[in-house]
Amino acid sequence: MYKNRLNIVRSKFELLGIDTLWVIQPQNRRYISGFKAPDGQLDESSGSLFINKDKALLLTDSRYTIEAEEEAVNVEVITHKEGLINALPDIFHQLRTRKLGFEAGYLMWDLYEKAKKQASLQSPAVELVATAGVVEDIRKIKSKEEIDLLSSSALLMGDILSKVIEEMKPHQTERSIAWKIELLIHERDGDGVSFPPIVASGENAAVPHATPTNKKIVEHEPIILDVGSILNDYCSDMTRTVFLEGPSSYFKQIYDIVREAQISAINSIKIGMDSFEADSIARDVIKKAGFGEFFCHSLGHGIGLVPHEKPYLGQRNSEVLQEGMVFTIEPGIYIPGKGGVRLEEMVVLEKEGARVLTTNADFL
Hints:
Strand content: 15-25%
Radius of gyration: 23 Å
Helix content: 25-40%
Number of domains: 2
Strand order of the largest sheet: 4-3-2-1-5-6
CATH architecture of the largest domain: Alpha-Beta Complex
CATH superfamily of the largest domain: Creatinase/methionine aminopeptidase superfamily
Structural class: alpha+beta
Shape: elongated
CATH class of the largest domain: Alpha Beta
Order of helices and strands: HHEHEEHEHEHEHHHEEEEEEHHEEEEEEE
Number of strands: 19
Number of helices: 11
């Protein structure tokens, strides 16, 4: 598996005009090598992966050496003792690097400047070449093993969310419900949340990415629960909108429109469709119902080792949807001052169409 991924990366070198690729994004490192360590913070790295046509070197420090040697596959682990920048000349020499591609979206400016200076001191000088989406484009298409892992993560999250919804009572706070979701994920042996749970009720439900507050939930108001777990490194993401004692007639209408938009998209999306068209299917349903201005985000996004990755299904994106892509379908309507409704499923695109991976789709 990892060898095949390495070879796919290498096959892109000629088109990119590089002979070596420097991979620093944590999930990209993990996808190619199996090394799972995260980066503690923005300016801290657990490792750098350097790949040429013949070799793959994983540079790390002594904090991660044992972990890297146990997990990394088809790569040579090198522990640098004087920092990554001071190790670069030896890496350039080992890999005969002349044109070093780097992940432009992840390399911090300070590190770039130091690497550029070190590269300029080589004889001949090493050229730094910005790249984008090299590994991410490979990650878009999931293997059967990945789809099974994503399905297991979705099943775990669905079971937990069902339990939380069944036990919800008036006067619980948004924050306490969010904490309960996190606790249950850990109790069920999940790796953790794929993102902080969104629990938004009443007027707060008009904010698509609301932060849970101490507001208490009450009967008949919309309660949006947007949650995800990580299980065996793979993420899930699902959203349910529920109402204690049922919705008002106004929000029942909105819920039905959002559900129709979602079902229309799920039933219509197929291999070869443009992501823009997929978004338009759901958006047109909401527009025709008179709520177009209140659907303020894209229809969905890819999901895998991170909760938001390629492909993106929206009005500003154009990408051909392919077999093996896993992404969300999550239309919504948000009415300022009143509340909102969002419904989200994870689907995998197969020859027959989109297959839903999440469970318990409709709580009304």
